[in-house]
Design a protein that fits this description.
The protein is 61% helix and 11% strand. By secondary structure, the protein is mainly alpha-helical. Helix 10 crosses helix 11.
Length: 221
């Protein structure tokens, strides 16, 4: 358990909470575990994760409307994101599974690993409070997604978005240049079937096109 605590960056006061978070229902049923399975912790962890993520988005995206906040939160807490966290923690190796579930590949089952992540978050919440759980959520999910967004190729993403239907045309148009040669700022508009759907600025034409594509994605989605 110490190795998992080291990966989490958190040491439990009551390690029984962590053990319970790693106990799958198949193990609890076979061994008549007094604390039961991790299902109740999973339920709580889902709410902790959702609340911390919602607060993060509310504070970091003051201009996003409610619908966009809801969709972004759903994308951040989806099963695939939780499985990535489980992989980074090597959580499968710590799970307590029933013999049949273990032999059937339960340690690699995405739903089991994702549920265990939520249960572990709940265990941290109960043991150390919301602030400690939030630290782990920020480090393993929110900060990682922010890094992805910062490095994302918005032009490619926009092209993929509009190509869901055939015959769509995207064009980028330089709309202005300001500033001296050593600090020039370019303005670009992106047009979708002849209609301007996004505008952006940057210190290079490529950067301005990326910002225009980002604005277009936010509008079209």
């Amino acid at each position: 358990m110490e190795s998992l605590e080291a990966k989490l960056g958190y040491t439990f006061h009551d390690r029984r909470l962590l053990e319970n978070a790693l106990t799958h229902s198949s193990y609890a049923n076979e061994n008549h575990s007094p604390n039961g399975s991790n299902e109740r912790l999973e339920f709580l962890g889902d709410s902790v994760l959702g609340m911390v993520t919602a607060e993060f988005l509310y504070r970091t995206h003051p201009d996003l409307p409610e619908g966009d906040l809801t969709r972004t939160r759903a994308a951040l807490v989806r099963e695939e994101s939780l499985v990535e966290v489980a992989d980074r923690l090597e959580l499968g190796a710590y799970l307590k599974l029933g013999k049949g579930e273990d032999q059937g590949g339960g340690r690699e089952r995405p739903s089991i690993r994702a549920d265990a992540v939520e249960a572990v978050l709940a265990a941290v919440f109960l043991d150390g409070g919301l602030a400690e759980a939030a630290k782990i959520i920020r480090r393993f999910i929110l900060d990682k997604e922010a890094e992805k967004a910062a490095s994302r190729d918005y032009k490619t993403a926009l092209q993929e978005l509009v190509q869901r239907e055939s015959g769509q045309v995207l064009t980028y148009r330089l709309t202005g240049e300001t500033g001296p040669d050593h600090a020039k700022v370019f303005a670009v508009a992106v047009e979708f079937n002849g209609e301007t759907v996004g505008e952006g600025q940057g210190h290079s034409k490529k950067e301005a096109e990326q910002m225009a594509a980002k604005a277009a994605i936010e509008r079209l989605q």
